[in-house]
Amino acid sequence: MQQTEDRTVHQLFEEHARLTPDAPALVCGEQRLSYRELDDRADRLAHHLRELGLRSGEFAAVALGRTPDLLTAVLAVLKTGAAYVPVEPTGPDRIIRHVLGEADPLVVITQEAYRVRLTDAAARTVLCLDSTELPEHHGPLPDPAGPADLACVFYTSGSTGLPKGALIEHRNLLHSYRGWREVYGLTAEDRFLQTATLEFDVFTADWIRALCSGGVLVLAQRNFTLDRTASPAELHELLLRERITVMETNAHTLRRLFAHLQPLGLELGGVRLLSVGAEKWYLDEQLRLQGYLGPGVRHVNVYGVAEAAVDSAWFDTATLAEEPDHPERLSLIGRPFPGTGIRLLDPAGRPVPPGTPGEICLSGPGVGRGYLKRPELTAERFVEDGRVYRTGDIGVLRPDGLLEFVGRAEGHDPAADASLATVEVLLRGHPEVRESAVAEVETGPRRTGLVAYVVAAEGARAEPWALRSYLAERLPDRLLPEAVVPLPALPRTRAGKLDIRALPLPAPRDHAAPGGSGAGSAKAARSGAKGGGFLAAEYGRLSPGTRWAAVTAAGALAAAVLTDGFWPGSTDLSRVPSPWDALFQLLYLVEFAGFGLGLAFLLLGGPLLARNGRPPGLTLATRLAVTWLLAAWWPQDNWYRTSRATDWPRQAALVYGFNVSLIGAAAVLIGFLAWHRSRPGER
Q1: To which H or E segment does residue 515 belong?
Q2: Entry's SUPFAM superfamilies (predicted)?
Q3: Which of 553, 681, 551 is nearest to 604 (CA)?
Q4: Are 62 and 96 in contact (CB under 8 A)?
Q5: What distance in Å separates the CA atoms of residue 341 and residue 501, rounded to the nearest whole number?
Q6: Helices marked H in 279-400 — which ranges?
């Protein structure tokens, strides 16, 4: 074979199709395709795509389910010289619309089950492979693609905002492939399991590792990250049945798999390499799994980002000279893949000394072009003329030369971010805690604080007060979380990462604890000693939901009483025949309830909006706008009903006083929802 430096990723696949045409290439359920069959299918589709106008410089979205057509489409797009944009067709509508709107692909390749969704999201040609008869074409197209051409657009997970499209060239992917081949020892005898979601970069990494090595790609029909009905037992059975030798998965899925294996004394069959990524995989977990499965299975903790072609650093336990103290506090990502450079920099862009936290910055042939249609963000993150990518992640170079992954940057000070990670690992080290997360969240109007989230170990209770006392003995006051929130499970993104935005807010500080204990109930009890304090004390004991219901009911009752006072006869239905009188009566009840809900929002809704992190002025305007939207139809309808149809001055005043103001209130609400504040290191 020619050197990979002079090729494209699909040309490496094509060489295997020429040299070993009958070798198995793709397995998906009962379907089996050889290299020749997969290549022929991709050639036929490539000819059809070229007839549709797809060529170098264009994008094609690939939005297919987990069938052999998925790999056929990816290879066909590359054969035309174009780049593919992976779109998970079962993903959220807002993500699909954003990706297709920004990438603006010439064609969307999908299947009939997703036609309506994707046609609605993109005003482009939609090609459904399961209902299209491809014309007979033989042989490949003239291939204009080279190593410097775009191969794909990786959209980031969107964990802190809308996803961004990272532009990745063939040479970026080939650089990563050479690193995988060297570090993992990939051969044509390997059988690779593919479980990653189409929209994420690991999907592309899996098929390149397999099909560029001449091995077999086993495409799992179930998504073991997203599908809650897919059990670890099914995954284990698939590993054994398909004789998998190489597998990459996320830490969350691996934890579930290990929890299934260990009690039953099961092993992984022929698996020789298990790589783990997506989020922190702690050293104690890695050592336990290594000890359980034995030396025949190599465990690699990988670190990487989409912007630098998937993987940039790796660690396995064989590189440890000796086991460090407190392995439960460490996530080691070891050393860079061959040809990749890693630097740790401070906020001013200066290198930090060993042992000091710094931002992980990547360099080398794996770094992509930048972001699609984001020149300002590209200039901010792809520095030194685009040769270095600032990840926004924090790492520490240990005395033994191994790189430790600390976590995501939350501010401008890597040392402070490292301190926050310390809280998380301390909690994780508690015997009653299985998983933990620490985040800075809005704990009140225009106020942020540190909150810890824990998942209890099997059979444990993980009492919040006890865990906070445990932390208080080991942490300075500035790092002590304001609250510890127990959860049945940490929320996950579609990629299996921790979903920080889905973490629940802690209970308000004055929220009464069960049994009447806590600051809130004590304050209410003190107020009860004064005149009229009994009602205040009782109100203070109500849950937030009950408070909303009480204020809404009181407001609705007030609206009903005031209607007859302000607009006599406006709700008189004595002349309305049945069943229309019942319909109008229902309308009046809804109006009264709307007024009451608006009153409740005005009185109680401020903290809910303030916690969204919008500017105070916008938050106040939105609070008033929502209140007006909820309550305005009550006086509006009554004034309309008590005015004459030909009273044009009053009709005009009502239109401008209510209808126009409602449009303005809706505009304020849209502005609140659309407002987005970029945070340091956002990705």
Answers
A1: none
A2: Acetyl-CoA synthetase-like
A3: 551
A4: no
A5: 32
A6: 283-293, 375-381
Residues 6+ apart with CB under 8 A from 284: 327, 328
Least confident interval from 127-131, 397-401, 567-571 = 567-571
Sequence length of the chain is 683
Q: Which amino acid is at 373?
A: K
Per-residue pLDDT tens over the stretch 8-27: 999 999 999 999 999 999 99
The whole-angstrom separation of Cα 81 and Cα 169 is 12
Can you read off the two tokens belonging to residue 279? 């989020």
CA distance 635 to 632: 6
Partners of 169 in beta bridges: 150
Name beta bridge partners: 10.
none
What pairs with residue 110 in β-bridges?
Answer: 128
Nearest to 71 by CA among 176, 212, 190, 171: 212
Distance in angstroms (rounded) separating the CA atoms of residues 389 and 381? 6
| Nearest CA-CA partner of 285 in 272, 270, 301, 269 | 301
Cis amide leading into 579 (omega within 30): yes
How far apart are the C-alpha atoms of 121 and 100, rounded to whole Å?
A: 7
Mean pLDDT of 69-96: 93
What are 465's two structure tokens?
Answer: 């007060």
What lies within 8 Å, CB to CB, of 522 at 6+ separation is none
Please write down the HEC assignment for all residues of 629-675: HHHCHHHHHHHHHCCCCCCHHHHHHHHHHHHHHHHHHHHHHHHHHHC
CA–CA gap between residue 356 and residue 379 (Å, rounded)? 26
Give the gyration radius of the chain's Cα atoms.
30
Pairing of strands 341-345, 358-363: antiparallel
Give the span between the Cα atoms of 23 and 36, in whole angstroms. Answer: 8
Q: Kindly give the pairing relationship between strand 216-219 and strand 191-194.
A: parallel
What six digits make up the tokens of 483? 């609250």
515, pLDDT greater than 60: no
Distance between CA atoms of residues 509 and 523, nearest Å = 12
| Region of residue 406 (left: phi > 0; alpha: psi -120 to 50; beta: else) | alpha
Assess contact for 140 and 76: CB atoms under 8 A: no
